[in-house]
Amino acid sequence: MKILVADDGLTSRTMLSAAINGWGHETITAADGNEVWAIMQKDNAPKLLILDWMMPGINGVELCRKLRSKMPNDAIYIILLTSKSNPQDIAEGLEAGADDYIIKPFENLELRARVNVGIRILTLSEEKLEPEKNRCAIDAIDEICQEMVQPMQSVLGWSEMLLMDLPESDINYKTLKTIKEGVGQIGSLTKRIMAISSKQKK
């Protein structure tokens, strides 16, 4: 699992990253909220984020709000690190969009347990989304095939008419026949794809 660790303290950031790497995960580190936001705009951005509350630029709570607001459909699990133990502060962090929090100082054993919870939740979310993704892909393929039918029928019709008017000795006859056969093969393949798509929808 790719995990983003954001903390403006170099020592804390390094220790967190080393611990998480030791558990078999890949870490990406950031020193402030702006850097986190830039990372999250990239392809294959991390799904599990460990954010320090107090960071320059955009703090952890503001970043939670921004991520939930600007990326509402993305499956992201956010663990907020904070030295604030007041219930009101904890509630503020959770309401801002954090999924979990850890109060500093903490033991690595606790962090690992909470990271594992996040991974399980993300895995379950992906498993639930997978059938929907497959259905959308099948619908898109079926729609493309449907749109291809009419143009191919037109090409076949015109090529047949032209072939009827051309003698086989004409230099264009062979080319036109090749085009007709090629479009026919594409048409057959399209029908097979549509048949498979229809079965998958049932």
UniProtKB/TrEMBL annotation:
Residues 2-119 form the Response regulatory domain. One of its GO terms (cellular component) is protein-DNA complex. This is Response regulator transcription factor. InterPro entries: CheY-like_superfamily (IPR011006), Sig_transdc_resp-reg_receiver (IPR001789), WalR-like (IPR039420). The keyword Lipid metabolism does not apply. The modification 4-aspartylphosphate is found at residue 52. Keywords: DNA-binding, Phosphoprotein, Transcription, Transcription regulation. One of its GO terms (biological process) is regulation of DNA-templated transcription. Pfam families: Response_reg. GO terms for molecular function: phosphorelay response regulator activity; transcription cis-regulatory region binding.
